[in-house]
Write a structure and sequence with these properties.
Number of strands: 12
Distance between the termini: 28 Å
Number of helices: 12
Low-confidence stretches: none
Mean pLDDT: 95
CATH architecture of the largest domain: 3-Layer(aba) Sandwich
CATH class of the largest domain: Alpha Beta
Order of helices and strands: EHHEHHEHEHEHEEEHEEHEHHEH
CATH superfamily of the largest domain: Type I PLP-dependent aspartate aminotransferase-like (Major domain)
Helix content: 25-40%
Structural class: alpha/beta
Strand content: 5-15%
Length: 378
């Protein structure tokens, strides 16, 4: 028997309905949506348009404000690097972001910093949130871009993006939100029209890997002045050239349709799972990281001081599949930059693991898990 999968913040399983839509558009409706001269192309184009409308409805955007990409990493790069030329032309060379952001945001910003932009990195408190007061104080007249994640991928802590958006009223800085962990899960917040740019990935919401979204909202009928980071075709309004993967786009649309219908049901299942998990792990000395009253229902970052997270993961690997941070940085473990930015002790960070699940997750024998962890303490 395989271990139970508890790493849904890295990637989720695919919903059965979504898998069926992929097969149909791979083997039956395999046309290129850019082919204008025959029925196969027309049907593919219609399928893409339907999926685009579903995405737009989720965040109260217009259909033509939805750009399909390969994933949130590409969407983040387009949003951040794509504004650089405009920033230089206007003399707006200041960027604000969180020190706990995903590397897919931090690394493009670091590139702009190396090219002369000034960056303010905001640390979250021990609760895992960047305070609205710190956010407000960081904004300057020459601020070009503010990039703040909606939900942290390691702790599951929900950031107050609606309050950040309110703090930006009257300022012309562009507001980008990496919504990789929240898209299709926390629905109302991303409808806020002050959020100019939203990034998301299909494989975090029960769709396949390799498909993502960038919402590019118009402001006063003007699109954000983003330059493409790749060229070679006119697809997706020129922002993301290349033949559209129709089967992946349709699958993403189907996944979002299902997410809208079953949002509360999923949350209830995940909430019950979390309550039991937290209760059982606190019994053996686990200390949760981040404000548990403001986290996703499917995520728990918990520390076992005095233990090494790698040893814990190894001890449990035949029972459960868990991680100690982002999948994008797990090949060579370093102390979590997220937990470090929160000001946690090195001992607490060293003993931290991330557990993330979903409505499709099997039940876990937490008694067996606890016994394995107790062995490490002997």
């Amino acid at each position: 028997m395989r271990p139970i999968y508890l790493d849904c913040n890295a990637t989720t399983p695919i919903e059965p309905e979504v898998a069926e839509s992929i097969k149909f558009y791979l083997f039956e409706e395999f046309g290129n949506s850019g082919s204008r001269t025959h029925e196969y192309g027309s049907r593919a184009k219609s399928a893409v348009a339907k999926a685009r409308a579903v995405v737009a409805r989720l965040v109260s955007a217009d259909d033509d404000e939805v750009i399909f990409t390969s994933g949130a990493t590409e969407s983040n790069n387009i949003s951040i690097l794509g504004l650089a030329k405009y920033g230089r032309e206007k003399g707006k060379l200041h960027i604000v972001t969180g020190a706990h952001e995903h590397k897919a945001v931090l690394e493009p910003i670091e590139r702009l910093k190396a090219e002369g932009f000034e960056v303010t990195f905001l640390n979250p408190g021990e609760n895992g949130m960047v305070s609205v007061a710190d956010f407000k104080n960081a904004i300057r007249p020459d601020t070009l871009l503010v990039s703040m994640m909606h939900v942290n991928n390691e702790t599951g802590v929900i950031q107050p993006i609606s309050e950040y958006a309110q703090a930006l009223e009257g300022h012309d800085a562009y507001f980008h939100v990496d919504a990789s962990q929240s898209f299709g899960k926390i629905i109302p917040d991303l409808k806020n029209k002050r959020i100019d740019l939203i990034s998301a990935s299909g494989h975090k919401i029960y769709a396949p890997k390799g498909i993502g979204i960038l919402i590019v909202r118009c402001r006063n009928y003007n699109e954000p002045p983003i330059e493409p980071v790749m060229v070679g075709g006119g697809q997706e309004k020129g922002l993301r050239p290349g033949t559209l993967p129709v089967h992946l786009i349709v699958a993403l649309g189907e996944a979002i349709e299902v997410a809208i219908k079953r949002n509360e049901q999923r949350n209830e299942v995940c909430r019950a799972f979390k309550e039991k998990t937290l209760l059982e792990l606190q019994k053996i000395g686990g200390i949760p990281n981040g404000d548990q009253s403001s986290t996703l229902e499917n995520t728990l970052n918990i520390s076992f001081p005095g233990l090494d997270s790698e040893a814990v993961i190894l001890q449990l690997k035949d029972l459960v599949s868990i991680s100690n941070g982002s999948a994008c940085t797990s090949s060579s473990y370093n102390f979590s930059h997220v937990l470090t930015s929160m000001g946690l002790s090195r001992e607490r960070i060293k003993g931290s693991i991330r557990i993330s699940w979903c409505h499709l997750t099997e039940s876990v024998d937490w008694t067996a898990i606890a016994e394995r962890i107790k062995i490490l303490r002997r």
